[in-house]
Amino acid sequence: MRTVIALVFLFVFSSCAFAQTTEERLEKLEKALKSQEQTIQELKALQRTVKKQEQTIEEQRKLIEKLTAKEKQAEPSGPPATAEAPQPVVAEVQQQVEELKEQVNSVAEAQQKKLPSEFNPAIGLVGETIFSYRSKDSKATGSDRPGGWDVNQRSVELNIAASVDPFAKGYAVLNASADPITGEATLGVEEAAIQTTSLPDNLELKAGRFFGEFGRLAYIHDHELPFVNRPLVLDQYIGGESRTDGAQLNWLLPIEHYVSLTAGVGDGFGSVPNDVNDNSNGNFRNFGGLSFFGRGSTSFDLTPDLSLEPGISGLLNPKTTDRGGVLAQPNGTPVTLPQFPGSNLSQTERSLEGVDLTLSWKPLSSNQFQSIIWGTEVLHSGNSYDVTPTSGGAKFSPFISSVDSYGMYTYLTYKWSREWSGGFLFQWVEDSWNNADRTFSYSPYITWALSHWNQLRLQYTYTEPNAVSGLRPDSAVYLQWDWIIGSHSHGWQQR
C-alpha cells in the first residue's frame, strides 16, 4: 500500500511540472493560426482591390471608345482631342493594377511553396513504457512478465505512410518489443499493406499484412487501448491483435444510413499462423486451411448528444493440420485435458463469433472536454483439438475434442476535462481448451493526457482465477507512459 500511495502522489505531483509546457504549446499554436488567418484576409483584400481596378479600367475603356466614336462623327479629319484627355488617368490606373497583381502573385506563391519533404512518406514514432508492480510471480499468474517490480518497454513503433498513386495508398508499421527475460528488443513487421482509394460503389480493398477488422478492440494497437492491457478474452481467443497476411474488402452500403460490411481471408488470424506440418501431404495447404473473417457495423443517433454503435463479427478456420503446434501454457508446460493428463492438444478447427456494442455521450457544446463511453464485447469460441497420448502418459486412442467457451469485457470511461479521464474495466473469460477454467478481472484506471502526443495512465488490476487452472489471485499496479513524435495517423482516439 505504501508503494501504491507513493505512485499516486508521484502521478499527481508531476501534473504541475507539465502544465506550463502544455500552455506554452497552446499559445504557440494560437499565434500561428492567427498569423495564417491574417495573411489570408490580406490576400482576399488584395484580390478585391484588383477586381475593382479591373472594373475601373473596363469602364474607362468603354468611355474612351464612346468618346472616340462621337468625335469621329463630328470631325472626321480632326484629332480625337476628347479621347486623349483620359489617357494619363488610364495609364496610371493600369500601372497600379499591375503592381497589385504582382503583390497578389507573390503572396499566393508564398502560400503554395512546396516543402523539400513534401513527396516523402509521413513518418512517426511511438514509444510505450510500462512501470508495474505485481504481488505474485509469473508461475503463479501465468504471465510472461516477472512478478514484483518491473519496467517493460512494451513497444517502439515506427509508422510510415504515403500515397502510392492516385488510386492507392500504402503504409507500414515496424515494432520492436522487448524480450521479458533478456530485455533485448526484436524488430518485426507488424503491418505492411496497400489500400485502394478510388474503387467504385464505395468499395475499399486492402492487401498485405494488417490487422483484420474484427470486434471493437482487436484491430487497434496496444497504445490506443482505453486501458493499459489488452482484454483477457482477446488474448485467449485471438492471440492479441488480429494480425493476418491476406486481403480484406470493405463495402460502405450506398444508403442514407451508415452500414459497413467487411470480409477478409488470410493465413492465420492473431499471433499464431495457420501452420502446415503434415509431411504426408508434402506441406500442402488446402483452401480450408486459410482463415475467413468478417464484420458488420452500423450507428444510430439516439439524440444529438447520444449515439449507439452495434457490431457483429465472425472468424472461421475450418481445417488446419496443426495450427501452432502442441498447445502450451505461458510457462512452457504442455496443455492437457483434465481427464487425460498424459496428452497433447493441437488445434484442428477454429471458430469465433462476437457481438459488440458502444454507447457514446458527447455533448455538442463540449465534446472535446466531456464525454462518457460505454463499450462491451461478448465472444464465443468453438474449437476442435486433436488429442493424442504422450509417451509415458495415459493409454487411449487419439480423438477429436470440441470445446465451446465464452468470454467478455465491459468498460465505462468518463472524460471530465481536456486532460483528464477515468474509468473501470470488468473482464470474464473461459479458457479456450477447458471451459471449466474461468478468470475474473477488475481494473479502475485514470488517464492524464498532457497533449495529443503525450499521456500517462495509472491502473490497478485484481485478477481472480478459479482453482481449476492452478493459478493464484494477483494484484497489480501499472503506470503507462505513451508518447508520439512525427506523424501518426491513428493516434489516440476515444473508443
Fill in the keyword field for this structure.
2 domains; Porin; 495 residues; 16-stranded antiparallel β-barrel; 5 helices; 23% helix; elongated; alpha+beta; single chain
Q: Give a quick account of the main beta sheet: strands, pairing sense, barrel closure.
A: 16 strands, antiparallel, barrel
Name of the CATH class of the largest domain:
Mainly Beta
> How confident overall, as mean pLDDT?
82
N- to C-terminal distance: 31 Å
Under CATH, the topology of the largest domain is which?
Porin
How many helix segments? Answer: 5
Radius of gyration: 33 Å
What's the architecture of the largest domain in CATH terms?
Beta Barrel
- Please list the strands of the largest sheet in the order they lie side by side: 1-2-3-4-5-6-7-8-10-12-13-14-15-16-17-18
CATH superfamily label of the largest domain: Porin
> What structural category characterises the helix and strand content?
alpha+beta
Number of strands: 18
Number of domains: 2
* Approximate shape: elongated
